[in-house]
Specification:
With 510 residues, the chain is of the alpha/beta class. It has 2 domains: 81 residues, no CATH class; 360 residues, 3-Layer(aba) Sandwich (Rossmann fold). It is 40% helix and 15% strand. The protein has 17 helices and 14 strands. It has an 8-stranded mixed sheet, sandwiched between helices. Strands 2-1-6-7 form a 4-stranded antiparallel sheet. Helix 7 runs antiparallel to helix 17. The chain is globular and about 70 Å long. 42% of the residues are buried. The N terminus and C terminus are likely disordered. This is Fungal lipase-type domain-containing protein. Pfam families: Lipase_3. GO terms for molecular function: triacylglycerol lipase activity.
Length: 510
């Protein structure tokens, strides 16, 4: 398949050369998005949104005209018309949201830093009462944003840092329990991650990295790696960071509904591919030349580190994991490995574990991935908790046609798990599900005050998470996306849910 991909690129390049050189816009710009035309020879079809070029009249015009190729902020093959109004509406919304995010990027980041600082100030001084007491005593413990004790906003929702000692290697829940904690830790700073990996988990910290996004023209993708030497064979974990609450760049990746259709692979979400390391004018070349003044793209840097670490131990394996956007990157990583025919790495891939992962591609991409996962015997477990909104986006309908694939481990609000083909209410927004979702959200709010007593102090919920549960009475899918519920699901759920899908009947409750 990859050979056909490269042949296609070669033919496309020849055709382009025969048509004459394309004029590229190379004027400097401070926009985090690309500022020059992009050669899409690597894809058989595409639609690329460029919000930095969108103007008010142009934006409004797309709602009334199917000729999307005439819009400056839409890059697509000539002659393409979009007759479906719903799709044009989603393009409009995607571009508007990205423009707003770019506009508020700095103030949003500032607000986020202040909120995190105050949350850490309170926790460093135990609680508000002690903080006021320490203030009058002039003994206030101020937070340091680079320290090993400083937590992100997401970390303040769930402050647990220890692995569940009752779940050991050999337990079918072990990879899932380790993966969700690594996914949760990925939101934190380097000092925090290194400390918990080394001192609490007793594993080897292999590094925390910021990776280059060629389209946003800065390092906006994060991941870290660890090695578990306490098991045989040794296990390397790659954990991708998801969408941080106050990070405009990550939100732009989520809302960017650009797509590329790769030969043999199908249509894939453009924002996620860009975050993983898609190259502007080359797509997914097998090797790239890295500029000295910028960090490497995620896919290429992690692939190289895996080659290096796996070379030292012939029996070592690795797993990929992530929460939210991080889950999308985790499942796209083996897709690009397959595109490049990286058989040695794919044979060492022990599993992919994602939590609250959005859909990443169309039906053909799902078929491609199922073929590759089967070929290399790679377990893929996609965890979905209750009414979490993110796994139900982008839509799986006649407008967008995104599809999930693989094993879905669905947990209800009592953390009872079952294997399903698709999570219930797959597109989230449904009038019929409104009341049931509100009832579940109310139950989750009540549970936040009782679970510390019924399940133990390790499950006690923080004050910020309880505030988020209140918001859930309006939008139930927001608090359901927190890492707290996914950690609880891996610990409180039955181990039987991890049985291979062919040995567990669909919809079997465990």
């Amino acid at each position: 398949m990859a050979k056909h991909h490269y042949i296609y690129i070669y033919i496309c390049m020849v055709v382009k050369l025969s048509q004459g050189n394309r004029k590229l816009e190379t004027s400097p710009s401070s926009s985090p998005f690309m500022t020059m035309d992009c050669n899409k020879c690597f894809s058989s079809d595409y639609m690329l949104l460029k919000p930095e070029e969108a103007r008010l009249f142009d934006l409004i015009h797309i709602l009334f005209s199917p000729e999307i190729e005439k819009r400056k902020f839409v890059d697509c093959p000539k002659g393409i018309r979009e007759e479906n109004f719903k799709r044009r509406w989603l393009i409009f919304v995607s571009v508007v949201v990205q423009k707003v995010l770019l506009l508020v990027s700095k103030p949003l980041g500032w607000v986020g830093r202040k909120i995190e600082w105050w949350l850490n100030l309170v926790s460093n001084n135990r609680n508000l009462g002690v903080l006021f007491l320490n203030f009058f005593k002039r003994k206030v413990v101020k937070p340091d944003q680079t320290s090993a004790t400083f937590l992100s906003f997401i970390g303040n929702l769930d402050r647990r840092l220890e692995l569940d000692k009752s779940i050991k290697h050999g337990d079918s829940r072990y990879y899932g329990a380790l993966s969700v904690m690594a996914s949760k830790a990925s939101y934190e700073n380097k000092a925090y991650i290194e400390t918990i990996v080394r001192d609490h988990w007793k594993m080897e910290f292999l590094g925390s990295f910021d990776f280059w996004n060629d389209y946003q023209e800065k390092a906006t993708t994060q991941a870290f790696m660890l090695r578990d030497k306490n098991v045989e064979p040794e296990l390397i974990v790659v954990a991708f960071r998801g969408t941080e609450t106050f990070d405009s760049d990550a939100w732009c990746s989520d809302f960017d509904i650009s797509w590329y259709e790769l030969p043999g692979m199908g249509k894939v979400h453009g924002g996620f591919m860009k975050a993983l390391g898609l190259q502007k004018n080359q797509g997914w070349p097998k090797e790239i030349e890295q500029a000295d003044n910028q960090s490497a793209p995620a896919y290429y840097a992690i692939r190289e580190k895996l080659r290096e670490h796996l070379l030292t131990n012939d029996g070592a394996k690795f797993i990929l994991t992530g929460h939210s956007l991080g889950g999308a990157l985790a499942v796209l990583f083996p897709a690009v490995l397959a595109l490049h025919e990286e058989e040695k790495l794919l044979k060492r891939l022990e599993g992919v574990y994602t939590f609250g992962q959005p859909r990443v591609g169309y039906e053909k991409f799902g078929e491609f991935m199922k073929e590759q996962l089967t070929k290399y015997s790679i377990p893929y477990h996609r965890f979905v908790y209750s009414n979490d909104i993110v796994p139900r986006l982008p839509y799986d309908d006649s407008t967008l046609m995104y599809k999930h694939f693989g094993t879905c481990l669905y947990y209800n609000s009592f953390y009872k798990g079952k294997i399903v083909a698709e999570e219930p209410n797959k597109n989230y927004f449904s009038p019929l599900s409104l009341i049931p979702k509100m009832i579940i959200a109310f139950w989750e709010l009540i549970r936040s005050f009782t679970i510390g007593y019924t399940k133990g102090p390790d499950y006690k919920e923080s004050f910020p998470l309880r505030v988020l549960r209140l918001i859930g009475l309006v939008v139930a899918g927001i608090p359901a996306h927190s890492t707290q519920d996914y950690v609880n699901a891996t610990r409180l759920g039955s181990s039987d849910v991890y049985l291979p899908v062919h040995t567990t009947p669909i919809h079997q409750t465990v």
